[in-house]
Structure formats: structure tokens, C-alpha cells
Amino acid sequence: MSSSAVRIVALICLTSLFAIAAGTMTEDEVPTKDECSWTGDKCIMNCNGRKDDNYQSCHGCSVYAICFNGNILDDVKCLNRHFKWDDDDKRCRPTSKTCECRSNLVKVSDIVAVMNQESKEMETIQEKLNWARIWKKH
Fold first, then answer.
1. 6, 23, 46, 118: least buried by Cβ within 10 Å?
2. Could you count the other beta carbons within 10 Å of the beta carbon of residue 97?
3. Mean pLDDT to the nearest integer, 88-93
4. For residue 48, which of 66, 64, 65, 72 has the smallest C-alpha distance?
5. 27, 108 in Cβ contact below 8 A?
6. Hey, how many other C-beta atoms are within 10 angstroms of the C-beta on 101?
7. Rounded to two decimals, what is the model's pTM?
């Protein structure tokens, strides 16, 4: 995981502490920015070779994608925000047979390990700068 991704997740960590305290999330898991990392085998990322129609989005189960003339309009919300896109029925329904939203989860211990490593690297840089200042004075 890149350090910028870790920083984003670290910020999310702070808000997740409230969820942990409320008991809605375990201490070893923190959701990342995206709602879903995968919505099922039927989701599409483009309309190449597809007929004009509505399709399952890869961005979440409460949204779908529209293909028209080879172009994609993605993240079209279901009118009822509690409904999920069902690609077999080609419409939003209370439940979906085709869409399964899996959240991205990162272990808090992984975030802490990377942050500790970055902290050690910063200390090393600071120490080198201090030695450079001392050396420059002499």
C-alpha cells in the first residue's frame, strides 16, 4: 500500500474510532474510502462491444451503469436508495441476485506499522538535518 493511501486510511481511522466505540465495527478492521471493491462478475467498466442497455456498476450495488452508443454513464443511483441493482432483472429491487458489495477493509495494525515506519524515517531525516546544521556551523 502506498504511503498516500495509508495517510488517507489513517484519516478514516479517526472517524472509525467512533464506530468501534459504538460497536458497529471491530477494532481490527477499518473501511477504506470506496464503498465497494467488487460488486460481482456482472459489473462493467466500459461499454465496448455492448448493446445500449442498463448494466451492473462496479462502483456499488445501489447504482448502475447505462451504455448508449458505446459510451458509459456510471453511478446512476437507484430511485430508492435502499434498493439494489439486479442485473438479471435489469432494474433496482429491494434485494439483488447479482450484486454483492464487498467493502475494502484494511487492518489497523497494518496502518500503524506503516505510520511507525514513516515516523522512524522522519526521525532519521531530522537527525541528518541536525548533523548538517552542526557541521555547517563549524
1. 23
2. 13
3. 96
4. 72
5. yes
6. 16
7. 0.50
Residue with cell 495517510: 7
Flag whether pLDDT at 9 surpasses 70.
Answer: no
Contacts with 11 (C-beta within 8 Å, 6 or more apart), sequence order:
none
107 C-beta neighbours (distance < 10 Å), count: 12
94 in Cβ contact with 81 (< 8 Å): no
Q: How far apart are CA 73 and CA 138, in angstroms?
A: 65
* Whether the Cβ atoms of residue 90 and residue 54 lie closer than 8 Å to each other: yes
pLDDT at site 88? 96
Give CA torsion, residues 117, 122, 123, 128, to 10 deg: 130
Distance between CA 29 and CA 6 in Å, rounded?
A: 14
> Do 116 and 7 touch, CB atoms closer than 8 A?
no
- Residue length, the chain? 138
Tell me the pLDDT band of 127, cut-offs 50, 70 and 90. Answer: confident
- What is the rounded CA–CA span in Å between residue 122 and residue 124? 5
